[in-house]
Design goal:
Subunit structure: Homotetramer; dimer of dimers.
Distance between the termini: 34 Å
Number of strands: 8
Function: Catalyzes the condensation of (S)-aspartate-beta-semialdehyde [(S)-ASA] and pyruvate to 4-hydroxy-tetrahydrodipicolinate (HTPA).
Strand content: 5-15%
CATH architecture: Alpha-Beta Barrel
CATH topology: TIM Barrel
Shape: globular
Subcellular location: Cytoplasm
Oligomer: single chain
Catalytic activity: L-aspartate 4-semialdehyde + pyruvate = (2S,4S)-4-hydroxy-2,3,4,5-tetrahydrodipicolinate + H2O + H(+)
Structural class: alpha/beta
Number of helices: 12
GO molecular function: 4-hydroxy-tetrahydrodipicolinate synthase activity
CATH superfamily: Aldolase class I
Strand order of the largest sheet: 1-2-3-4-5-6-7-8
Amino acid sequence: MNELQGAGVAIVTPFNADGSVDYETLGRLIDYQIEGGIDYIVSLGTTGETATLSKEERKQIWAFTSKHVNKRIPLVAGIGGNHTQEIVDAVKNFEAMDYIAILSVSPYYNKPTQEGIYQHYKAVAEASALPIILYNVPGRTGSNMTAATTLRLANDFSNIVAIKEASGSFAQFSEILRDKPQDFMLISGDDPVTLPMIAMGAAGIISVVGNAYPNKVSALAHLCLEGNFAEARGIHQDLLKITDLCFVEGNPAGVKFILKQKGYGSDVVRLPLVPVGKQTQDGIIEEIKKLA
C-alpha cells in the first residue's frame, strides 16, 4: 500500500446555504488538493461530516468523487461506526469504484473493551474486499485502542494494512512502530504531530488543514519522509497556529471558514455543528494573511 505514503487529506463536504451538498465546490476542492500535491483523498471521514449524511448522500458523494478524480490520485472511503453489523453490511455492499482502501473508526459511544474492539474489526476485515485502515481517535470515540490491540489486528488480518493514530500517545506510537509487521503502516491523525511521528517512522499524515493548504501539508510530509527535517520544521511551525484555529471550535467548522476565505464554498455545517464565532473568524483571517 505505497499509495498511503505521504499526505492524505480528509476532505470536507461543502454545503450550499440550504444545507444540500455543494458538488460544484467539491469538484473544485478536489482539483485544489491534486494541484497542491496531495497523495490521496479520504472521502467521508469525520471531517466530511459523515455522521449527518444519509446513506444515499454518502453513495452519491463517493460516486461523484471517484468520477471527478478520474484515477488522478488514489481514494480512501470512510466507513465506520458503533453498530458492527451495519458497518459489515456497508463494507460488503460498498461499490469500490477507484477506492483503494477503507478507513474505519474504532467504535464510539459504546465504549467497548479491547476484546470488543478486536472482534468489531475482525468482523469488518472478514467482510471487506478492500484493505482496512484502522482509526484510533479516543478524543471522539471515548475509548482508546491500545497498541496491543492494534498489533494483534495487524498480525491476524493481512488486509488490515495501517492505522491512523490520533491518541496523542508517543509511547503508543513507539510500541506500534517497534512491534508491527514490516508492511503495516502508522499514519498520523493529528496535523501538529506529523513531523515527529514521521521522524519516528510513520508513513505520513491524513490531514485536516491540508484542505486549505494542500501544498504546505504535502511539502511537509515529503520533506520529512526524505529526512529533510531542517526545512520541514519551517512549514511545521508556519502551520501550527492555523491548525489550532481549525479545531478551537470543532472540526470541520474551522477549516470550512478558512476555505470560504479562499473562495471554496461556504462555511455551512450541519447541526449539531455550528460555524465558528467572530473571535475565531478574526484569528483565522489574521493568520491567513501571514500565510499568504
